[in-house]
Design brief:
alpha/beta, Arginase, Chain A, nine-stranded mixed sheet, binds manganese (II) ion
Length: 293
């Protein structure tokens, strides 16, 4: 079964297992960047994260948790036979369902952001009250972009369509159209947060959802390009590592059941720092996810 869904011939993340037995968390990659046809891009993200991961410590002093106390499996990346966005989203849905059936909390590595709706479609069957928390530079609420409804610029719009609760919190979004900002304000879904600032507004916004399962989607362009340059659509005025730790610490009081990390384009940053930041985000998520029951 695993063989038909995933290619696991390549690198593995830190101390991950290859077999799901006794594991609580499952990682898989999606090597897809369909809208990026000119430069090599986000399809190299999952492999870059795995390759640099051996340089990280397993212990996180901020969370006071250690990866060595958690069993997690890295399935490799999903096999892709048709490279169009619709087929990819279907494959993501199948892979996520496979993990849910094995009672593994999924963490998906992109790839571009359009893959998120596939994972959410699978998860809402188990968690009809799922809500979405988004870290991203961009609103991603367009109806369609360059004629494609599955473009990464429409990622959150597509997610909202499959979320029964239609609830999204968009943390520190700094780029979008006037209409997108109007939508975010009207629906009270924009959570104001600034580099170096506090997470008071995020705490307030999450308060009514203390029992709700949360899907956390992390578009790495949320970070400032001076920290993370390796992404397809960098946006000045972004966040730093301490900001991420503040958000993560706040989320510890809530119930994250699944997550993704998208839009790492490792070739753009020859220093390799972007991939290391992404790997450290993944380590933080493994340490933060709830066990699926
Ligand atoms: Mn983005």
């Amino acid at each position: 079964m695993i063989k038909n869904l995933f290619d696991n011939e390549n690198a593995i993340f830190m101390g991950a297992k290859r077999s799901p037995d006794d594991c609580a968390i499952g990682i898989f990659g999606v090597n897809y960047d369909g809208t990026c046809s000119f430069k090599p891009g986000a399809r190299f993200g999952p492999e870059a994260i795995r390759q640099v991961s051996s340089c990280l410590e397993t212990y996180c002093p901020k969370l006071n948790k250690d990866l060595e106390d958690i069993m997690y499996v890295d399935f490799g990346s999903i096999l892709i036979d048709k490279n169009d966005s619709k087929s990819i989203i279907e494959s993501v849905k199948s892979a996520t369902n496979f993990l849910i059936n094995k009672k593994l909390s999924p963490i998906m590595l992109g790839g571009e952001h359009s893959i998120t709706s596939g994972a959410i479609e699978a998860l809402v069957t188990k968690y009809p009250d799922l809500i979405l928390v988004q870290l991203d530079a961009h609103a991603d609420l367009r109806e369609s972009y360059l004629g494609n409804r599955n473009s990464h610029a429409c990622a959150m719009k597509r997610c909202l369509e499959v979320l029964p609760e239609k609830k999204i919190l968009q943390v520190g979004i700094r780029s979008g159209t006037k209409e997108e900002f109007q939508i975010m304000h009207n629906n009270k879904q924009l959570v104001n947060f600034y580099p170096g600032g506090n997470t008071q507004e995020l705490k307030q916004a999450l308060l009514p959802y203390s029992k709700s399962p949360i899907y956390l989607t992390i578009d790495l362009d949320w970070f400032d390009p001076s920290l993370l340059a390796g992404t397809g659509t960098p946006e000045p005025g972004g966040f730093f590592w301490n900001d991420f730790e503040e958000v993560l610490k706040t989320l510890q009081d809530f119930k994250i059941v699944a997550s993704d990390i998208v839009e790492l384009s490792p070739e753009i940053d020859k220093s390799g720092v972007s991939s290391i930041v992404a790997a450290k985000v993944l380590r933080s998520l493994i340490l933060s996810l709830e066990n699926m029951q």
